[in-house]
Design goal:
434 residues, 22 strands
Length: 434
C-alpha cells in the first residue's frame, strides 16, 4: 500500500471512530436505497446491457450540525458488452478504484463526505461530485470530475461523473460566494477498451497509423501534493443575473497519445498534461424564457495530428454555448443550445479549427407529473452526425418508476457520434426505491 493510500485509510479509520464516538449524540440517521434493473438491446437483437444495480445511501446528522453522507454502488452486468471482463482501474487513483467481485460484478464507494461549518465557511470534505457549468448533453466548464465513457454520453451526467476525494469550501464574500477546491485525487476519464461496445474509433481520438504499434504504460502524475488540482469559482446574483467566474488548474482527464518512431517500431505513450481553464457563466429569466451562456478558455490542449512526428499538435481551446429555454406552454419545456469549440491548428489536425454543434431538448409532463416524455437531439454541423435520445418514464407508485427509451446514432464513422452508428439501442429500466 502506498503512503498516500495509507494516509487515506488512516483518515477513514479516524473518521469512522469519530463518527462512532458521537453516534449516541446523533440527531438522525436515514437510510435510502435504490434497486434498478436495466436492459439495452441493440438493433441486431443482442443484449448490450443486462444490468442489476443496488445503490445504498446513509445520511447521519450529528447534534453539532455536521452531516456524514455515504453512497455505494453494487452493479452486475450479465451481458458483459460494455466493459468485457473485470473492470479496469487503470485511470483511477489507488484510493478511488472499483472492487471486482467476479467477471460481471463490481462495487465502489460512489461518495463519502462530511459537511460541516467553520465559522461562516461551508465545508464538504471527502469523495464527492462538483458541478460547474449549465450546458445540457455536452460540457465546457463541468470538468472538475472525470467521466466514465462505458456507455459514451448516454447516461445522465450524475451517473457518468466519477466522484473525487477533495476539500470543497464555500466562503461568503459580501453578497457573493467563493468556492475553493483542493483535489489530490489523481483519477481520470474511463474509456471502454477495444472490445467494449463504445470503444472510441474516430481519428479525432485515436492516431491514424498504418503499422503495428506498441502501447506503453500511461505516464501519470503520482505526486500527492504537487500533482493536485486546484480551483476557485465566484458566484453572485446581480440585477437578476446568475453570474459565475471560475478557474481550474488541472490535468486534462483525457490522455495525450504521444507517438515515438525512433526505435523503428511506433510506440504510443498515453500522457496526462496540465492545463489552465478559465470560464464564466451567465443566466437570466425573461418571463417564460431563460437565457444561458457559458464560455471557457483552456491552455495547452493537445489534438491528434497526421502530420506531426509525435502525432499531436498543441493549441489553446476556446469554447462556448448559448442556450434558450422556454416554459410558456403548460407542462412543456423547450430548450435549444448552440456550441462552438475553436482551436489554433495546422492542416494535419484531425479536427476542424471550429467545431460546432446544436442541441434541442423537449420535455413534456402528463398525468400530474407521473408520466414524462423527453427527447434530446445533438447534431454536429461539421460532420453532419449526431445522437437522438427519447425516453418515456412512468411513476407507477411513489417508489417505483418504469422507463423505456431509444438511443439512435447517425453519421459517418469518422465523426464523434457517427463512430457508434451500429450501436443504436432500445432500453427498458425499472427503478425501485427502498
Amino acid at each position: 500500500m502506498s503512503w498516500v493510500a495509507g494516509v487515506v485509510a488512516a483518515a477513514s479509520v479516524v473518521l469512522g471512530a469519530t463518527a462512532g464516538s458521537v453516534l449516541a449524540a446523533t440527531a438522525e440517521v436515514e437510510f435510502q436505497a435504490q434497486i434498478a434493473i436495466s436492459n439495452a438491446i441493440e438493433r441486431g437483437g443482442e443484449f448490450q446491457k443486462n444490468e442489476l444495480s443496488f445503490e445504498p445511501r446513509i445520511d447521519i446528522w450529528f447534534a453539532g450540525g455536521a452531516r456524514l453522507t455515504a453512497k455505494g454502488l453494487l452493479r452486475s452486468d450479465f451481458a458483459d458488452k460494455l466493459e468485457p471482463g473485470r473492470p479496469s482501474n487503470d485511470t483511477r487513483s489507488s484510493y478511488s478504484g472499483r472492487i471486482a467481485l467476479g467477471e460481471h460484478t463490481e462495487f465502489e464507494v460512489r461518495e463519502l463526505f462530511l459537511d460541516f461549518e467553520l465559522g461562516e465557511t461551508q465545508m464538504r470534505v471527502g469523495k464527492q461530485q462538483v458541478v460547474w457549468g449549465q450546458a445540457d448533453g455536452l460540457r465546457i466548464l463541468d470538468v472538475v470530475n472525470p467521466l466514465s465513457f462505458r456507455e459514451f454520453i448516454l447516461p445522465d451526467f450524475e451517473d457518468r461523473r466519477i466522484p473525487l476525494w477533495m476539500v470543497n469550501a464555500e466562503v461568503p464574500v459580501g453578497e457573493a460566494a467563493l468556492q475553493l477546491l483542493w483535489i489530490p485525487d489523481q483519477t481520470y476519464d474511463e474509456f471502454a477498451d477495444a472490445s467494449g461496445a463504445f470503444a472510441f474509433t474516430s481519428p479525432k481520438f485515436r492516431p491514424v497509423l498504418d503499422q503495428v504499434v506498441r502501447i506503453r504504460s500511461a505516464r501519470k502524475p503520482n505526486n500527492f501534493l504537487e500533482d493536485s488540482d486546484v480551483g476557485a469559482r465566484l458566484s453572485a446574483f446581480v440585477s437578476g443575473w446568475d453570474l459565475t467566474a471560475s478557474y481550474l488548474y488541472h490535468y486534462q482527464d483525457q490522455p495525450v497519445l504521444v507517438l515515438d518512431r525512433s526505435s523503428g517500431m511506433t510506440q504510443v505513450t498515453p500522457t496526462y498534461e496540465r492545463t489552465h481553464l478559465a470560464g464564466v457563466t451567465a443566466s437570466k429569466a425573461f418571463g417564460d424564457f431563460v437565457f444561458r451562456g457559458e464560455l471557457g478558455y483552456s491552455t495547452d490542449r493537445y489534438f491528434a495530428s497526421s502530420e506531426s512526428v509525435q502525432g499531436i499538435e498543441k493549441s489553446f481551446e476556446a469554447s462556448g454555448v448559448l442556450g434558450l429555454d422556454y416554459s410558456g406552454f403548460t407542462d412543456l419545456l423547450i430548450s435549444g443550445q448552440f456550441f462552438q469549440s475553436s482551436v489554433e491548428g495546422g492542416s494535419g489536425m484531425q479536427r476542424a479549427q471550429h467545431e460546432r454543434s446544436v442541441s434541442l431538448l423537449l420535455r413534456r409532463n402528463f398525468s400530474n407529473d407521473t408520466v414524462t416524455l423527453e427527447m434530446l437531439a445533438i447534431h454536429n454541423t461539421n460532420d453532419s452526425d449526431g445522437l437522438v435520445q427519447i425516453e418515456l418514464s412512468y411513476q407507477l407508485t411513489s417508489n417505483i418508476t418504469i422507463s423505456a427509451g431509444a438511443d439512435v446514432f447517425y453519421g459517418d464513422a469518422d465523426g464523434v457520434f457517427g463512430q457508434f452508428d451500429a450501436r443504436d439501442r432500445f432500453s427498458l429500466k425499472v427503478e425501485i426505491g427502498v
